[in-house]
Amino acid sequence: MGNLDGKIALVTGSGRGIGREVALKFAREGAKVVVNDLDGDVGDAVVAEIKDMGGEAVACNGSVTDEDFGERFINTALDSFGMPDIIVNNAGYTWDNVIQKMTDEQFDAMMDVHLKAPFRILRAVQPHWRKASKAEQADGRRVNRKVVNISSVAGVGGNVGQANYSTAKAGIIGMTKTLAREWGRMNVNVNCVAFGYIETRLTEATDEKKQVEIQGKKIGIGIPKETAKMFQAMVPMGRAGSAEEAAGSVYILTLPEADYISGQVLICGGG
To answer: Does residue 2 lie within any of the structural domains?
Structure first.
């Protein structure tokens, strides 16, 4: 028996890193999972991994920034498993520059992936959750559903070279607090996790010039080793967090014990 038995969970950007660990954690706890990744083979691999452990999962791959993605994501859950219970808006990346060198394309890309994509997904699910909530309340039942949006300490306190990313991550906090107010009467808990220094491929300590291609754009990844040491020294716990630890902070907010917690920002940053 898992703590999420019978739940249906959707996780964007769950082919790698933190998102993958969230999807696997949910599956281990009994949830049916809708996996998403920009790269179809990567998303499909996580689905296969969940099935190999005896869980249930389907993929809804592709870019969360596509105009029709929100509807497609929600419909994949409805068609495959039924009414969604948990939505985690995790997909994203960084594209850094100081403001005087930052292009409109860089700024807009961060708004699209970190802010507009979650907006479209949550807009798409609202009519379904509203209808379900009305029926449940008429029957005298309370069913809590959960949204966990992903922010960053950069969205809370800013960060040099990240005017675009920090602004988007601050914006998702505003969306979280607003929807906690709008959706409270539907018994939907809307919370946010702001990550600090977490080890992923985007934050790997390396002096190599590494890049990934995202929708035709070459994006630099990794942190110089000396900079990584400095970041670790700034963390009270003296180290970066693991993707598994980051996933744990998301999981906490989906438990029944969190049914009266909403509109909050949980910082997962080692102190």
So the answer is: no
